[in-house]
């Protein structure tokens, strides 16, 4: 991941994309690879097929509400989701995403973003440029203690640095 | 400036004098709970091995196979087998299986004590707030960190104080109290925050009822849903042989809250959460008459002794409607045995109910009562998300156990008060 600059094409969803939508319970006994085919399927059966690495997942309020299941960010990550922009995130999902090295960025204006818009994210500076629409939005900057975990590549690499 | 319960517990766990909302602290964890569906098998076992680190304290780890028990197929059986074998190989003596949803098992076995910091790989870990604990759900990678270090970072939460005073009318249960609260605060209204439930209504509740309230804190986005522990908590634990090793905390009179809400219990009537969000709450009379196909009483939210007892009062001497199935899954083996001993299971069965194993099962559509496309279920569980109990073309209404029982009798959503 380039430091402070990510460009990509948008797939856009609305409010309350909960973990039962992202990772439907019926498929949780499958491997992450197999389960990822059903990611988002209750609202968008084509998600797994159309989302390509480098694309940006954008939603509105309360993304990832519900369960603590890490299969939600894991299946998204498997499909190539490195960055999620939403108006707000549910607490456990937010932490899970960070721990897996997924950038979770809050932006109050995601309602202005549409499917297939091209975004340029300068996430350390808190700026999102919508090239398609010629608009600029403010977004959250990662708190320093969280950026440390992301910079080292997630919580597991961080744990590797600890003494036994 | 005083401190809230959450601030006090976190300060203690972090070894500091004082904590206030917004600070980031590293807290020592008292118990770490893993279930089968999100426990060792999701990366934890594998990564713990590749990190080549030891578990910080085996006695503080609890593993419970509950979501996939009894297994519906070979895959689920394999996950339970893996969980069992991993626990044995790692010297986890606190391993439970086939005895009911993890949260009820934690509480019944004294793993959720007042004043402690507890984390679990399941989002409804917040239920132990009813014991006066600071308890919250975490993901599996975060759990891996806890297993290795025994610590976790928290941003000390702001607290919303919710005060319920007075006596609940007949036919109105703790479940109605929490649904009403969630309907008002909204499903994200308490995100990152703690909710503190106080007032005479809460004080007068037995533990079964308090647990139903704290269980649903995460449905308003909250980190914890805490209820001050008291002599009722003590008696509950003493009945299980636990008389020390914990501390009570209460918020100072000058503690700072980000918001305070007041309710009068007398004014509450039975409510339901309509599809597909838990805060989509309305009075039951507004949806009375909605046809249902399945009525479900169970789970770590609405399957305790008191829930089955109250439902049995509605169903006693009556029969469920033709074409409707009433499924009952007691929240634990302990609940099962107590209800069996007191004739409650017999009453429910005679009314036409089917008694199932204590399990997560139908609560998330894994087995024992998943619902088909086009079907409607009224349930005493905690989530009505799209597709949760089975088909994504089905619908779930959440209500109290007595409201579920009333709906089973009529085959339609109904006001339970006429049956009490
Ligand atoms: S009973 Fe339902 S809410 Fe409780 S732990 Fe099991 S699946 Fe989760």
TrEMBL record, chain B:
This entry's Enzyme Commission designation comes to 4.2.1.33
Domain of life, per UniProt, equals Bacteria
InterPro entries, from UniProt?
Acnase/IPM_dHydase_lsu_aba_1/3 (IPR015931), Acoase/IPM_deHydtase_lsu_aba (IPR001030), Aconitase_4Fe-4S_BS (IPR018136), Aconitase_4Fe-4S_dom (IPR036008), HAcnase/IPMdehydase_lsu_prok (IPR011826), Homoacnase/IPMdehydase_lsu (IPR006251), IPM_dehydratase_rel_enz (IPR050067)
**Reactions performed catalytically:** (2R,3S)-3-isopropylmalate = (2S)-2-isopropylmalate
Q: Would I find Lyase among this entry's keywords?
A: yes
The keyword Metal-binding appears for this protein: yes
The record's free-text note on cofactor binding: Binds 1 [4Fe-4S] cluster per subunit.
Q: In which pathway does it act?
A: Amino-acid biosynthesis; L-leucine biosynthesis; L-leucine from 3-methyl-2-oxobutanoate: step 2/4
Q: Where does [4Fe-4S] cluster bind?
A: 300, 360, 363
The record's keywords, sorted A to Z, are: 4Fe-4S, Amino-acid biosynthesis, Branched-chain amino acid biosynthesis, Iron, Iron-sulfur, Leucine biosynthesis, Lyase, Metal-binding
Q: Which Pfam families match?
A: Aconitase
Domain spans labelled Aconitase/3-isopropylmalate dehydratase large subunit alpha/beta/alpha:
45-411
Cofactors, names only: [4Fe-4S] cluster
Kind of enzyme, top EC level? lyase
Q: What does this protein do?
A: Catalyzes the isomerization between 2-isopropylmalate and 3-isopropylmalate, via the formation of 2-isopropylmaleate.
Q: How does it assemble?
A: Heterodimer of LeuC and LeuD.
Family, similarity comment: Belongs to the aconitase/IPM isomerase family. LeuC type 2 subfamily.
Give the protein's recorded name. Answer: 3-isopropylmalate dehydratase large subunit
- Identify the species of origin: Fusibacter paucivorans
* Lineage summary: Bacteria, Bacillati, Bacillota, Clostridia, Eubacteriales
Record gene name: leuC
């Amino acid at each position: 991941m380039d430091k402070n600059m990510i460009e990509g094409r948008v797939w856009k969803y609305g409010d309350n994309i909960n973990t039962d939508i992202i990772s439907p319970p019926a498929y949780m006994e499958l491997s992450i690879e197999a389960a990822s085919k059903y990611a988002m399927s209750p609202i968008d059966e084509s998600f797994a097929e159309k989302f390509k690495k480098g694309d940006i997942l954008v939603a509105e309020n309360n993304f990832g509400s519900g369960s603590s299941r890490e299969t939600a960010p894991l299946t998204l990550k498997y499909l190539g989701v490195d960055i999620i922009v939403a108006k707000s995130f549910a607490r456990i999902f937010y932490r899970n995403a960070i721990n897996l090295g997924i950038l979770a960025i809050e932006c109050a204006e995601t309602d202005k973003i549409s499917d297939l818009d091209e975004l340029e994210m300068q996430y350390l500076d808190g700026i999102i440029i919508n090239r398609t629409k010629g608009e600029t939005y403010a977004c959250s900057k990662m708190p320093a203690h969280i950026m440390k975990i992301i910079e080292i590549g997630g919580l597991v690499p961080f744990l590797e640095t600890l003494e036994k | 400036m005083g401190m809230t319960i959450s601030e006090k517990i976190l300060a203690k766990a972090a070894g500091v004098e004082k904590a206030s909302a917004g600070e980031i602290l590293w807290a020592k964890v008292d118990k770490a709970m893993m279930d089968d569906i999100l426990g060792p098998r999701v990366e934890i076992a594998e990564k713990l091995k590749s990190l080549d680190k030891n578990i910080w304290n085996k006695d503080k780890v609890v593993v419970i196979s509950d979501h996939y028990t009894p297994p519906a197929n070979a895959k689920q059986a394999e996950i339970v087998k893996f969980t069992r074998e991993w626990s044995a190989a790692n010297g986890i003596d606190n391993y439970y299986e086939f005895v009911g949803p993890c949260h009820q098992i934690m509480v019944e076995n004294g793993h959720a004590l007042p004043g402690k910091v507890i984390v679990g790989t399941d989002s409804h870990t917040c239920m132990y707030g009813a014991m006066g604990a600071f308890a919250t759900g975490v993901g599996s990678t975060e759990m891996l960190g806890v297993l290795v270090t025994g610590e976790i970072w928290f941003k000390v939460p702001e607290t919303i104080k919710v005060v319920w005073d007075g006596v609940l009318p007949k036919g109105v249960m703790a479940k109605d109290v929490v649904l009403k609260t969630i309907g008002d605060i909204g499903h994200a209204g308490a995100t990152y925050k703690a909710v503190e439930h106080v007032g005479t209504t809460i004080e007068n509740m037995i533990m079964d009822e308090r647990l139903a309230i704290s269980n649903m804190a995460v449905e308003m986005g909250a980190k914890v849903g805490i209820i001050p522990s008291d002599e009722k908590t003590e008696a509950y634990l003493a009945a299980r042989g636990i008389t020390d090793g914990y501390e009570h905390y209460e918020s100072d009179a000058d503690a700072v809250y980000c918001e305070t809400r007041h309710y009068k219990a007398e004014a509450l009537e039975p409510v339901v959460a309509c599809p597909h969000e838990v805060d989509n709450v309305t009075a039951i009379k507004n949806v009375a008459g909605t046809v249902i196909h399945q009525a479900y009483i169970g789970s770590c939210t609405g399957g305790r002794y008191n829930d089955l007892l109250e439902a049995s009062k509605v169903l006693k001497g009556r029969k469920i409607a033709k074409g409707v199935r009433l499924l009952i899954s007691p929240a634990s083996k302990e609940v099962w045995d107590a209800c069996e001993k007191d004739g409650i299971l017999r009453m429910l069965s005679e009314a036409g109910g089917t008694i199932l194993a204590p399990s997560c099962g139908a609560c998330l559509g894994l087995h024992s009562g998943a619902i088909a496309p086009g079907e409607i279920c009224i349930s005493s569980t905690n989530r009505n998300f799209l597709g949760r109990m089975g088909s994504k073309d089905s619908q779930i209404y959440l209500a109290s156990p007595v409201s579920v029982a009333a709906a089973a009798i009529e085959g339609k959503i109904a006001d339970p008060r006429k049956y009490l």
